[in-house]
Amino acid sequence: MTDNTPQDQAPRDPNFNPEAAADGVRLQKVLASAGVASRRVSEDLITSGRVRVNGKVVTELGRRVHPESDQVAVDNVAVQLDTTRRYLMLNKPVGVVSSMQDESGRPDLREFTDQFDERLFNVGRLDAQTSGLLILTNDGDLAHVLAHPSFGVSKTYIAKVEGRVSPQTIGQLQSGIELDDGPIHADKARILTSPPGGGYSMVELTLHSGRNRIVRRMLDAVGHPVVDLVRRQFGPLNLGTLQQGAVRELTREELGQLLTVSRQAPSARPEAN
């Protein structure tokens, strides 16, 4: 984790009230409990100006914080202080609906969450025939930011489609097309494979829209129906080598990146189609 701002020039918190914070928990203890580092190393992080509380650099070892309300970052990467929160990455298989209880009795997400004590829910949705990265959590605030298109969190998909995709088609996807529910464009699009003899092509699309089955509808609109679709990235998270049907905890680094995106998101921003 790096910080390009010189620490001796970073803003201190002029509104810090030692008496109001006296009933909190010592910052170095909170950092150690959150798994950032040992208490001794956490003290070094604080005194070297690498820790911020509510956006302001803290260098005093006596500083106390309230884990339930204060926001802490180390090297400008957010730290989750609430140890009751859980964050999982699932590689959702084809045939599983993005619901915790499907009324029609189809396979749902409970088979991946029943092993955990917390009441988890999915962030956003993937249709039953789409596989790939799905976040499961009990953090409602984070889920709201990640799932709502107004915050502009990007998702990247790889699609196997019918026919040979041309550079002109990629340009069309990026410049924008008209669908029944309004215009839409990909933030990024590129051809991965496109055999000259036709058959099937592989394309990668990145967009932030949360509209229903949007990738399938976009590719169908340009004459390339989807045969197979996988979501590979969600914000800063990458599916990597996680196998279909597998679930794992986010690493501390991944969680820090995700929380940083969440905290930096504006409170409101219209969706750009």
Automatic annotation (TrEMBL):
Record key words, sorted: Isomerase, RNA-binding
Pfam name, any one: S4
Protein name stated in the entry: Pseudouridine synthase
Biological-process GO terms, alphabetical: enzyme-directed rRNA pseudouridine synthesis
Signal sequence bounds: none
GO molecular function, one term: rRNA pseudouridine synthase activity
Domain of life: Bacteria
Family: Belongs to the pseudouridine synthase RsuA family.
Substrates-to-products reaction catalysed: a uridine in RNA = a pseudouridine in RNA
Entry-linked SMART domains: S4 (SM00363)
SUPFAM superfamilies: Alpha-L RNA-binding motif, Pseudouridine synthase
Record domain RNA-binding S4: where: 25-89
Enzyme Commission designation: 5.4.99.-
InterPro entries linked: PsdUridine_s_RsuA/RluB/E/F_cat, PsdUridine_synth_cat_dom_sf, PsdUridine_synth_RsuA/RluA, PsdUridine_synth_RsuA/RluB/E/F, PsdUridine_synth_RsuA/RluB_CS, RsuA_PseudoU_synthase, S4_RNA-bd, S4_RNA-bd_sf
